[in-house]
Amino acid sequence: MTATLTAPAAPATRGPRGLVWALVQVHRMAFAFWAVALIGATAGLIWMYAIGDTAREGNVPCTTPARAGYPACASIETITVDDVYRSGIGLIATVLTYGVLLVAPWAGGALIGRELESGTARLAWTQSVSPARWLAAKLAVPAVLLATGTGVIVLLNDWARGDDAPDLVGDWYNADSFVGTGPTAVAYVLAGLALGALAGMLLGRALPAAGAGFAAALVLCGVLETFREHLWPTVTRSGVEPSAELPRSAWALRWTTEKGSPTDSVTFHPQSHFWPLQLVETGILLTIAATATLAAFWLLRRRTP
Amino acid sequence: MTAVTTIETSTVATSSRGPRGLLWTMLRVHRSALWFWVLLVAFGAGALLWAHGPAADAAWAEFRRMGCDSGQPVLGCDYIGTAYDRYDTFSTLGAGVLGLAPFLAAAWAGGALIGRELENGTAQLAWTQSVTPARWLAAKLAVPAALLATGTLTLTLLHRMMWSTDGQLRLAMGSRDWYEGTTFEANGTLATAYALLGLAVGVLAGLLQRRALPALGTAVVGLALLATSIGTLRPYLWPVETLTAKDGYPEYIGMVLGDGALTSTGARVSDPMCIDNAKCLAKHDIVGFYRDYHPSSHFWPLQLVETGIVLAVTGLAVLIAFRLVKRRTGAAV
Q: Labelling B49: which of A30, A83, A193, B193 has CA 20 to 30 A away?
């Protein structure tokens, strides 16, 4: 009787329990890497926010000499902060967009594939851990950490980008800016985690699973980037003067000259399509993540009696 | 005496079935990697050939249909058409295979070629057989190097073919220049040199980490750092040429490194930004403007110097790898 009473109490005192504890221990390098990346990104974004106002001052129309309310170009040229700001924001955007290319091979190789290959997983299943709970913990803990971390960085990114001046931070529809400024970034890492885990369950070996996870993530990024413009109905305006110009904020897709007509027609996404496009892409990615997770659990049930 | 005869027979038997011993084992163990590489090269070659032929023709047809060759300003020509977009995608995919190859080579060499074998003991088992550690490592380096170089050189030749005939199209559309990263590497010896560097860095990472997945990570990160730092040096690997002009800046051509104003003593100063104001120019003693650049004729000198550096680093990594194996096994190499 004493044993039953003391046993459950002991793990609770040392922090995260059983499975989660083991997971954190085994993957402490990966968790440390993620923590360092998050701290680095946060510090970088706070710095970008701090220099943002000066950067915008260095990025305005100017005249030589100063007249009609414009500043003199000579004074503007001495401001070089805008270059630092531009490359800082660009780096964060690239990392947010393509971070999934690291998440998927990690999930396939280190999280699932290696444990199936070395037999650690089978050992765990002979203990008190059921296979389903094992996989659930493997997916849930990284999913929570990845989603919270990425979510925080996206919010900080939006804050540091200020008024989204396209000359400084890129147009809203550029692949990098688009993914890194909304919920799509979070959905990408979750889809990468699920696809990697599925690759691990399918192949059961570390290196092939890491390779397959990377390939799946690469295809996912490429396909969605190519077909992004079709994720929401475009606006087509006909009867446009050939000398007319669209505003900078419009994502121009096609400009068609009509034979025998003095006017042109133009197809584009106005900036108001940002949220519909973001939400549709997020929905697609979350569907992929859910499907891959279900498939992984189904494979696990087939694999284990 | 009989034993000697038996050994001779077995040697004959091995040579009759194609590649011998070590080579045969390597090709068997890594056959999926071999197939993957063959398919990847075929995919890249297909994309480049498609871009060179049908896709380029379609882009020209679209260009003429939109009236962009009429000499009259047509706003539609400011937007790249769908056929040119497709041409661009195919040529990017072809060059992308060359850009990705070094990283794939590093990840594979660190993880599958070396790290996994040291982790599960296959390497140590092989060394107790007739294979010395040095020969084991030599085979691990030579066979993939030959296959990698063949593939990347094939793609480089195809990329050069596409590049040399599609120049007018690129000029008309105002895209890609000869000095841009991927293009520069895909048009010369650098793509191959970086692929070999990837292999060497991967092998070294595998020997250092002795475990598959950590070696894979180290190899990719190490190669990224090396490639970035060598790439940063690129513009400084050959003397630049300078254009000067009296009023206003000279033409903007080639790979530009820097520009500014010249005083009457010939000193280079930063531009006081008052080009229309003679009094201001006189005050700053500005008599002209300069621009440092690399003309396209510097392509091969820049290319070859960088290739030399990359191959030297590769050689260094290989040397360290052999020294490591020697030290660890204590065997005579």
A: B193
* Higher-scoring residue by pLDDT: A183, A239: A183
Asked if A74's CB is within 8 angstroms of B272's CB, the reply is: yes
Q: Which burial class, exposed, middle or buried, applies to A305 when counting CB atoms under 10 A from its CB (0-12, 13-18, 19+)?
A: exposed
Cβ–Cβ contact A191 with B under 8 A: no
User: Do A291 and A195 contact (CB within 8 A), yes or no?
Assistant: no
pLDDT at residue B2 in the model: 43
Q: What is the pLDDT of residues A173-195, one digit of tens each?
A: 988 889 999 999 999 999 999 99
The answer to whether B299 and B187 are in contact (CB under 8 A) is: yes
Is residue A67 one of the residues assigned to a domain?
yes
The residue of chain A nearest to residue B113, with distances taken between CA atoms, is: A207
Q: Assess contact for B202 and B113: CB atoms under 8 A.
A: yes
Average pLDDT estimate for B214-225: 94
pLDDT of A164? 81
DSSP state of B262: E
Closest partner CB to A210 (pick from B82, B216, B271): B216
Asked whether the beta carbons of residue B75 and residue A77 sit closer than 8 angstroms, the reply is: no
pLDDT of residue B9: 43
pLDDT tens digits, one per residue of B119-154: 988 888 888 887 889 999 999 999 999 999 999 999
User: In the structure, what pLDDT confidence band is assigned to residue B332 with cuts at 50, 70 and 90?
Assistant: very low
Option in B66, B89, B212 nearest A207 (CB):
B212
The boundaries of the domain holding residue A142 are 18-234+273-303
- Is B81 in contact with B59 (CB distance < 8 Å)? yes
Residue B72 C-alpha, separation from nearest chain A C-alpha, in angstroms = 12
Which percentage of chain A shows pLDDT scores above 70?
A: 88
How far apart are the C-alpha atoms of B250 and B262, rounded to whole Å?
12
In 3D space, the residue among A34, A21, A221, A29 whose CA is nearest the CA of residue A114 turns out to be A29
Q: Is the pLDDT of residue A219 over 70?
A: yes
Task: Indicate the pLDDT class of residue A16, thresholds 50, 70 and 90.
Answer: low
Q: Choosing among B88, B119, B216, B286, which should be mutated to test the A contact, i.e. which has the most A CBs within 10 A?
A: B216
> How many domains, chain A?
1
Is B186:B300 a contact under the CB 8 Å cutoff? no
| Residue A127 belongs to some domain of the structure | yes
Chosen for mutation from B68, B79, B92, B280 (greatest number of chain A CBs closer than 10 Å) is B79
Q: Do B67 and A257 touch (CB under 8 A)?
A: yes
pTM: 0.81
Q: Does the model's ipTM exceed the 0.95 cut?
A: no
pLDDT of residue A187: 97
Domain contains A88: yes
The shortest C-alpha distance from A269 to chain B (Å) reads 14
Q: Look at residue A191 and tell me if it is in a domain.
A: yes
- The reply to whether residue B216 touches residue A257, judged by beta carbons under 8 angstroms, is no
- Residue to mutate among A173, A207, A256, with most B CBs inside 10 A, is A207
Using the beta-carbon criterion (under 8 Å), do A264 and B78 form an inter-chain contact?
Answer: no
Nearest chain B Cα distance for residue A257, angstroms: 7
